[in-house]
Specification:
179 residues; alpha/beta; 5-stranded parallel β-sheet; two-stranded antiparallel ribbon
Length: 179
């Protein structure tokens, strides 16, 4: 679970609807309605190349859901990045005490130390790492997301999209914070 709000956001982004009905005998039924799309024929010459991460390096993946963190780490690893996964903000600070990373992917909503608190702690203890943070969320409507947008740090949505990850990494690369 990434949550119903993520599903609804994805469906609405594609022009669809999500309806909930409650049968008399209990339970719930969700109905997804999507508009018909047009088929696109692409021959081999016009096919898009695979999305490439713009650099090689190390990444710290911070997410309280181990499975979600592992998915992101696997996606980054396939592109050539070396990843370390931790499941709390405190563990992220401990990892930063041991080594520096080229990118830090942090979930925004985590128990005890969410994205805002982690950002403040990194700013205080590891200011050289601030420009390497990329936030991730499955709940783009949460008030904390708006607050973190003001930090200027990239925010990617869950479930992870390779093009969004590439764009966020390019943003780090463009400001000269990555090798």
């Amino acid at each position: 679970g990434l949550g119903l709000s993520v599903c609804q956001s994805m469906i609405e982004a594609h022009g669809g609807t999500l309806e909930l009905t409650r049968p008399v005998l209990g339970g719930a039924t969700f109905r997804i309605g999507l508009p018909p799309g047009e088929a696109e024929v692409v021959d081999g010459a016009d096919a898009k190349p695979a999305v490439e991460i713009p650099y090689r390096g190390s990444a710290l993946v911070v997410d309280d859901e181990q499975e979600v963190a592992d998915i992101l780490a696997e996606m980054l690893d396939e592109k050539g990045m070396t990843c370390r996964v931790v499941t709390s903000g405190q563990a992220a600070l401990e990892a930063l005490a041991e080594q520096r990373f080229d990118a830090i992917f942090s979930d925004i909503r985590m128990p005890r130390m969410g994205g805002s608190e982690l950002l403040a702690a990194i700013e205080r203890d590891y200011p050289d790492m601030i420009r390497r943070i990329i936030f991730a969320t499955g709940d783009v409507l949460h008030p904390e997301v708006d607050a973190l947008r003001k930090s200027g740090r990239p925010i990617v949505e869950k479930p992870y999209d390779p093009e969004q990850l590439r764009a966020a990494l390019l943003q780090l690369h463009e400001i000269g914070e990555t090798p």
